[in-house]
Design goal:
The chain is mainly beta. The chain is 9% helix and 38% strand.
């Protein structure tokens, strides 16, 4: 579900995105991108505390959700969307009520 500003929301709370200034401290990148389905998240190791990964397709449907102890565990993980249809996916990394987002192209 999207709010009027096109932010993804759930029944409990709206997702709060980091400001541009905050992103310089915690940027993430996905590689390889484009991908055949398996990819990693770079630069997430500095995120502290529990981290939630949410992947949605281009129409907002949930494709993958995983929880990690911290950003180091997330950075060390190979993520798998090999069974997903080709297209653009939004990868959300939630940590401490903040969300970082990046797009990945699955071919």
């Amino acid at each position: 579900e999207l709010d009027p500003d096109n932010h993804i929301v759930n029944e409990l709370r709206a997702v709060k995105y980091l400001s541009i200034g905050d992103l310089s401290l915690h940027e993430i990148s996905l590689y390889p991108n484009p991908s055949g389905g398996q990819f990693r998240i770079a630069n997430a190791a500095s995120l502290e505390g529990p981290v939630k990964l949410i992947v949605r397709n281009s129409i907002g449907q949930l494709v993958l959700m995983k929880e990690f102890e911290d950003g180091q565990e997330l950075s060390a993980s190979m993520l798998d969307l090999e069974n997903a249809s080709p297209g653009i996916y939004l990868v959300h990394v939630q940590c401490m009520e903040k969300t970082l987002m990046e797009k990945i192209l699955i071919h």
